[in-house]
Amino acid sequence: MSTAFMVTTLVIVATPGTGALYTISAGISRGTKASIIAAIGCTLGIIPHMIAAITGLAALLHASAVAFQTLKYAGVAYLLYMAWTTLRDTSDLAVDEETSPRTALKVIRSGILINVLNPKLTIFFFAFLPQFVPAGQSNTLSRMLLLSLVFMLVTLVVFVLYGLFAAAVRDQVISRPNVVLWMRRSFAGTYAALAGRLALATK
Predict the structure, then answer these.
(1) Does residue 5 fall inside a structural domain?
(2) Which of 30, 108, 138, 199 is the most exposed place for a label (fewest CB within 10 A)?
(3) Is 1 helix (H, G, I), strand (E, B) or coil?
(4) Across the chain, which distance is largest between two alpha carbons, in Å?
(5) CB neighbour class for 59 (10 Å; exposed up to 12, middle 13-18, buried from 19)
């Protein structure tokens, strides 16, 4: 495993995006358990992109404007939905670490969808992984699988740290209603901004 790959992966994963935002939001609104579940969901959402890149399906998204635009706008719609539901949520936050299986399922499902509905992630994998696989190697597939798994592990660890930090400051946040309102509006605005950025994205 090259140092360049690890450094590049860490920089990419640590840069706040939709997955990190969702994990932080889960940590503040529902606590430690939900933040970890959200981090797992976002990490699982990488798998379809990883498979697409390794099997060459990313080439279809790269070559087909229709396929790319379809997935892109599905992602835009989902981010706008996240913004709307976050903005509409006016319930009080309470310190409660208990998370029902149904709630956990919804949290992990949303985390998966956030990453699955992002065609840029597939293109990213398609462009990123080959740079660290020497040409002419006989074990190209296993090499790409290993690099992808390392990328997922780093993603999980970084997102869990984001979530744990958010959960740690949760008590201070929920005791201030104005801060909670401001944060919800900020999260909603950020989801909307990310949707706008994705809508303007090109291959």
Answers:
(1) no
(2) 138
(3) coil
(4) 59
(5) middle
